[in-house]
Amino acid sequence: MSAFSLADLEAIIADRAAAPASESYTAASLAKGPVHCARKFGEEAIEAIIAATEGHHQGLVAESADVLYHLLVVWRARGIGLDEVMAELARRTAQSGHAEKASRPKAS
Ligand SMILES: N=c1c2ncn([C@@H]3O[C@H](COP(=O)(O)OP(=O)(O)OP(=O)(O)O)[C@@H](O)[C@H]3O)c2ncn1[C@@H]1O[C@H](COP(=O)(O)O)[C@@H](O)[C@H]1O
User: Fold this and answer.
1) Residue by residue, what is the 3-state secondary structure of 12-59?
2) Residues contacting residue 9 through CB under 8 Å, at least 6 positions apart
3) Which of 65, 74, 83, 95 has the most other CB atoms within 10 Å of its CB?
4) pTM here?
5) Within 13 A of 106's CA, how many CA atoms are on the CB side?
6) Tens of pLDDT along 18-46?
7) Taking the alpha carbons of 73, 75, 78, 82 in that order, is the dihedral positive or negative?
8) CATH class for domain 6-100?
9) Which parts of the chain span the membrane according to its record (predicted)?
10) Residue ranges per domain, the chain?
11) Candidates 10, 13, 25, 76: which one to mutate for ligand 1, based on the most atoms within 8 Å of Cβ?
12) Ligand 1 pocket check for 93: Cβ under 6 Å
């Protein structure tokens, strides 16, 4: 398991949001507004669908990374934090009765 997390990516996006648009893809995307960011996310999602449909393993890994990055940029553009989404997932997990399983230590 990589040590890199979505929380790390969120922190990088927050940091780069303040950079000049000429120096940062993130800042340039955010400067174009949430609708642009959402469209970009949609394009990347379609590319991930194509890779999944074709059964292209490395392609799907790469497109998934693009999807996650662009989703976090959309959240940033709309003022949503990773914590808010994780809280929603935790709420659903608790509701479905799987919370105990999720907190169990993983077998190594
Ligand atoms: N994870 C990513 C990441 N994934 C994809 N991309 C960019 O997303 C773009 C998507 O590719 P496309 O070919 O569809 O885009 P494009 O045609 O070049 O761009 P558009 O004009 O269509 O937006 C590429 O230009 C990639 O550079 C990313 N850009 C940045 N990050 C992360 O953000 C950090 C900060 O980057 P900067 O903001 O550039 O400093 C990086 O260190 C990474 O951690």
Assistant:
1) HHHHHCCCCCCCCHHHHHHHCCHHHHHHHHHHHHHHHHHHHHHCCHHH
2) 68, 69, 72
3) 74
4) 0.91
5) 2
6) 999 999 999 999 999 999 999 999 999 99
7) negative
8) mainly alpha
9) none
10) 6-100
11) 25
12) no
